[in-house]
Amino acid sequence: MNPFLYSPEKLYLTANIIRRRNLKMLTRARLGHTGGDLSVADILTTLYFHILNIDPQHPHEPNRDRLVLSKGHCAGALYTTLAEAGFIPLDELETFAQPLSRLNGHPNRVKVPGVETNTGPLGHGLPVAVGMALSAQLDRASWRTYVITGDGELQEGSNWEAALSAAHYRLDNLTLIVDRNGLQQGDTTENTMHLEPLAQKWRAFGWAVVEVDGHNISELLFTFQNLPLEPEKPTCIIAHTHKGKGVSFIQDRVEWHHRVPTEDELTLALIELGEEVTL
Question: Is the domain defined by 8-272 classed in CATH 3.40.1280.10?
Fold first, then answer.
């Protein structure tokens, strides 16, 4: 049982708190992936504060649900979520990407409570998650595995090998969430390499598929609460999002894949996200 079980209204407010903390952290470090952090915030918030069977006080509880952030370059979003949930101290966010900090630019399971596997090289998270889900199936365990990938990440062939395996082993305890913001480093996903028709591709690989608004928390909750979509099939949730969600001058701008705000831009962003800022 999730210890938080926040209402949709509180989930929305928490997601914006996480966005604000994330932007402060990246600006302080002068390093990070602003756009992708903001696009995945609502998904992470909904999972950690309502859906996942987790206990921040016992992060290695054997029967916990597992979440793998395959788009590991967006570690900033994961760290701020873990801090808000109590896995790590909030003030540790100030050490992000600093020498000797355990909050590296990519998450490390050995160092950070709540991180299930090291990610960063794209295309690795889903194969690992398939192994986790298969392990639970073999043990007849009730815990579930969730994995979040970027959409550009699906250009990596290892994902499709893992997709075949998940369908073959009928892993209906596995849920993939694709952060479908349409942008990757340098351009749109469709200009780089066509992904569409993405839903049809996952269905052809034997998965149950649903497309949702990745910023509509009520829709996310309903979808997560009704898993698996089909018995004996892994689930793919294509979450349509906006890179840089919540900040007008960042949202849907490809240059913010790997750009961080200046101090002045941070102030404007925090105001847009509802924080009272003295100018």
Answer: no
